[in-house]
Amino acid sequence: MDRLTTSPRVVIVTPAARHSTSGNRTTALRWAGLLRQLGASVRVVERWQGEPCDVLVAVHAVKTASSVLAAAAALPGVRIVVLLAGTDVYPRFDPPAEALRALERADALVGLQPHARDALPPAARTRFRTIVQSATAAAANRGPTFRACVLAHLRPVKDPLLPIEALAHVPPGLSLELCLAGRALTPELAAAVQVAAARDPRVRWLGELPRAAAKRLLASCDACVVPSEAEGGANVVSEAIAAGTPVLATAIPGNLGLLGDDWPATFPVGDAAALGRLLVRTATEATFAAELRQRTCALQPLVAPAREREAWRSLLLDLGER
User: Fold this and answer.
1) Which fold has domain 146-302?
2) Predicted confidence (pLDDT) per residue in 32-43, tens digit
């Protein structure tokens, strides 16, 4: 591993609080670890409060805009990197005024998948680069029952009830188990999932799992369902690729940017019937399932930690040359 010749001071600003299991916090902590491996001195904070730094990394453009602008005003020489979260660019790029000023000041704009660049105005695309989230996997331990999982906190943009609705289009005689793992962020979603699990013995809601347990679940599944209406580049897709678990996903840019525009296991947003047919096909057509596994494993170099670390090394070197 090539380390940086200097030891830059990096402050990562994330809107997610300490001990949060949100994607923003997970990304910030993983990046902190990779940057420390490169020799950087790293602090993770919820907002910038005058910490000295050579590089400020902002996770989520809208939610960290005030920190970006404050650091830029106080530290004229600071290099600023802004991660474009899913809600920053989808369903369309239309940041509020403060966030737009922060993005204009940024030296680099990072997307978690390459299609995010297409959502930006032409003037911003020259500062864009992709850094795909890396992942490692637990040992696979799949059983005889076809098991599909949905790993995400339950909130509307993730459309967590769609996979349950899809089971209405799966023959009851097919041996199948659907596991949902994630904390419900609204009482209404919690109640809806509990009712659905009580009605259909094929559904299990596991609640929020520790990270290691979630990775074991993913490795034990035959498919990972990503039913989101919008994604910036979901970490669970990287985790599934690392585990060799095929992804059944909505045909949105955030998913296709990671899986490929020709991914054979996609379905339209909100289409429970299409997802049901895809579950049946994956569970019953051995050739199709084998193709999905093969294509999933072929993507594993994309999510290797060394690749993500090298992407950061390249970015920091470029920032140092400016």
Assistant:
1) Rossmann fold (3.40.50)
2) 999 999 999 999
